[in-house]
Specification:
heterotetramer; A: alpha+beta; Aldehyde Oxidoreductase, domain 3; five-stranded antiparallel β-sheet; four-stranded mixed β-sheet; 9 strands; C: alpha+beta; Ubiquitin-like (UB roll); 3 helices; Molybdopterin synthase sulfur carrier subunit (chains C, D); ThiS/MoaD-like (chains C, D)
Chain lengths: ~150, ~150, ~80, ~80
Amino acid sequence: MAVRVQREDFDPGAEIAALTAGNTAVGGLAVFVGLVREMAENRQLSAMTLEHYPGMTEKMLERIEAEAKERWPLEASLIIHRHGRLEPGERIVLVAAASPHRDAAFDACRFLIDWLKTQAPFWKLEEDSKGTGTWVEARESDEEAAGRWQ
Amino acid sequence: MAVRVQREDFDPGAEIAALTAGNTAVGGLAVFVGLVREMAENRQLSAMTLEHYPGMTEKMLERIEAEAKERWPLEASLIIHRHGRLEPGERIVLVAAASPHRDAAFDACRFLIDWLKTQAPFWKLEEDSKGTGTWVEARESDEEAAGRWQ
Amino acid sequence: MRLLYFAWLKQKTGVTEEEVELPGEVTKVSELLDWLAGRGEGYAEALANRKTIRVAVNQEYARADDPVKDGDEVALFPPVTGG
Amino acid sequence: MRLLYFAWLKQKTGVTEEEVELPGEVTKVSELLDWLAGRGEGYAEALANRKTIRVAVNQEYARADDPVKDGDEVALFPPVTGG
């Protein structure tokens, strides 16, 4: 169980290898990686800046992870979320869950990202080719996705 | 879109990096890795041997992948499945789906592994510490999981 | 009380962080927002639509009726959009 | 016809692969299984419980009533357990 909020990039391969290394109770590992897209709702982006609330962010991510561990039999889990300015193609977030069983790994992984999206204090500022910044509005579909787990 | 059936191990990090490299349309990448567990239904395993039907296996995996591509807006997908003798902790299978949207990536990834488990001609022979081999029986829960996508 | 502003709330108020002394009649979140809105044009604009504002008291999500007091760390921000 | 056997069907029949010439009355999957079951003890045992047997004709899943003919590649195996 680990949570990291960082400016720098991460290596998904190394992270997921470390997550299950030497643990022969793991039958399934589900991973989600979120990346910066070049197009957002038909606008071309040159970059995105992620602001966050240091302290509360880590606290919320740890709580989300603890909640996942309560709900599913997890052998390991990981949340990494970057902040600062990121360009299209860059990694933003990684969530992973490892369990003896595949359904638990999938459900927990999806829960982690769904809850993160509605609970963790991050805000995205999209920057278009002219350098104009627009704060991304929260999507109802994210609330609905998080609602799946109530 | 790619399918590989192979004896040798694979590198999940390198595979998923290659899957989205240079593709700034990808917003989410979902990955599942299946591993050999040491315990199966309370029996201690020393190894597992995966037999398959060369030719038909690739054909079925390609069909499953094509079906996923029909159903979800995928930018990339990958199925790698190993065969031969594998010990606890070794990787068996990787399925991955990349899409502009997270829900599509998750759904497609889960569909790939659910259908693979009921459609692709692989058979597991479990080997206990005395070297006794037991063919794994198909699980109803796998049929049900695949049924989700009907 | 320590106040923190994030995303467009920071831009509209022009403030990242400030220390304020609460008037005695401000005892809950909704009263705090009302009081802040009266502190100037930037604040009034930032707080115009309460539906788009989330509040955390001591790093916990809080509702309109939740209590606030001197010494608290209170953060104001829009609905989150990470991930 | 080329016959392939996998997993415990291979162990029980003792055969991985064989070429057979079909009697004229064998025209569908169920008839093929009946005919094979009469070819010896290992076959009879392997084919005793049809519910546990899957058949692929030319690498496509087939049902009891699907046709078979000389020249086909027919595989017999238990329900799959990969992934």
